[in-house]
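Quick one from the shared queue. A colleague (R.T.) flagged 5-Nucleotidase as missing a structural entry in our internal table.

Convert sequence to structure tokens.
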Amino acid sequence: MAVNSPEQTNGVSNGHSNRSSERTAEPLLGNRPRTANGTFLRILTINDVYKLENFPHFAAAVDMARALASDQDCVVASFLNGDFLSPSILTALDRGRALMNGVNLANIDYLCLGNHEFDIGFDGLESRLQELSKKTTLINSNVDDDFLSKHYPPFHFLQIGEERTAVVGGFLTNQIDIFPPKAKPKIRPIEESCVSTWEDAKAAFKTANNNPNSDTNDTKLPDLFLPMTHQLMHQDRNTATFLAQHEELKSRTPIILGGHDHEVYLEEVGQSIIAKVGVDAEKIGIIDVWWTADGQVKSRLSLVPCDEFPKDTLSEKYAQETSAKVNKLMSTPIASLPKGGGSTKKVRFEASPVASWLLSTVKRGLNRTQDKHIDCALIQAGGIRGQADYDGSAPFRVGDLYNEFAFETPTGIVEVPGWVLAESVQNTRSAAKPAPQFLHLDTDCTVLQQGDDHILTHVNGAPLVKDRLYRICTWNNTLNGVNDIQPLLAYVQTNVTVPDDEACRPAKDIVLEVLVVDAWRHLFELPSHVDNNCHSCVPGLTQPDIETAVDRVFAEMECAGDGVVNIDALYDYMESKGHRIYHGCGIAMEMMKLVDVEGKGQLSRDLVLEQLQIHACGP
């Protein structure tokens, strides 16, 4: 297989060029391939997009490619290869509405599922996909859950001129341990699914050409197989090697459009080029596939920084408006700290009630989605970065949360014995100060200091049992050796499989989501976890309870009977009920504006109910 481009680095365009005030499409997108015979295919591809800011560039790039299509005799198709709803500060607030709206404005033709789509649960994912624009096709070739397999096709025919047809597939990794425990999809292996998808597509192709009973060898087959995959690079290499051994697919799969990895990979394996262009649409992959006069399939690939393209006006307007709302959120009060407040200025010297409160909130959020209860949340001082004093009477703001958890802080879950916890606490807290390895624990743990000894006596509110296995959550970097916390690290390296970062949610997203739910529930006088500093799930809170509370407030507001309220009127109503206003209300009101994606200034009863039920407590 040939890989051709104007500027090449190891056979692939490096995407850098001298900028000028005049940006024209052909230098960015490439001329028509010299040896192309007939219509060729131009692909624009991105993967793993967790923010809106680069979608306007991608939308404009697609528009530019389409504008050139007629003159160059090509068909343009755009792809996003999984992870388009989560994780993101936006999704922590609105369950993926803003990102889905961004996708709808980004001129994307084809999507496949990524593992992080399942972060918002089956119900959340089903709801968001119902909002997907009809201009975009979600391809689901190997996930068998009914709400996906019954509504989203396993393949799609992409017509390339009058003579050529491509089969587009979308394949999700079957590495099941990276999915949330309560949202594990039913997934068939990718290699097996590639073959079954191809066979099903061949049968449909025959039917479409009015020859359903013809032998494969006596009828024309589709000309290309274009798999979108969302799996790790070593797994994509295995897939490429497998496809290179398939009699029909080896000559029809010049490109594997990859996702999942956040780094750039442009690698030829078997008969295919695996193309992963990096995270957040910072770079756009531009791939041309064509046929020569003697029928050979050729391809070329270039990688162009997104900001080489202008911005689509509509997509940019939405991104800017949403960004302004998020920026306002950063200064918005989100919660009240425990009585007395606290400081994170000396986290490398001593225990911090603020750090413990944050860890308790992380534990609480994870316990909403876990089948097995988490006993302890911990993090070393190096993971708490705010260096701030907090007055107990002042609110804790979203910006404070982002200052404290300044890193991505993917949070892994493992099991370790009580003695490992106890000795790790003792070793890190008794080390010379300042100690970046100083372990902080959630508020349900008790550590007694006696001289130079730091004795862990209680975990999850109960006396420590040294030989018992405790389920803990912590920064994944800790489990991978950052600060060399012993004997925790030695035990993990010998006895535990550390989860991949991809399987771990960022700590700040977890905290934000928990506190937002608390704020929403407080607005409607529903019991929340903040009441009485209780960190356990609210018992007995059912959907009818939530519906009754919402209906009561809507009735008191004297709604017109259409189940819709004005955002400002709702805020005024809440403010008039002085006992309902507390520090979290500000973020709840800003959330209402975030989820009002149509900009009508109104919220429906159903939308309010969905917000109140985000990650409802389990039993």
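Residues 1-23, 530-537, 615-619 have pLDDT under 50 and may be disordered.
The CA atoms of residues 143 and 187 lie 5 Å apart.
Added to the table.
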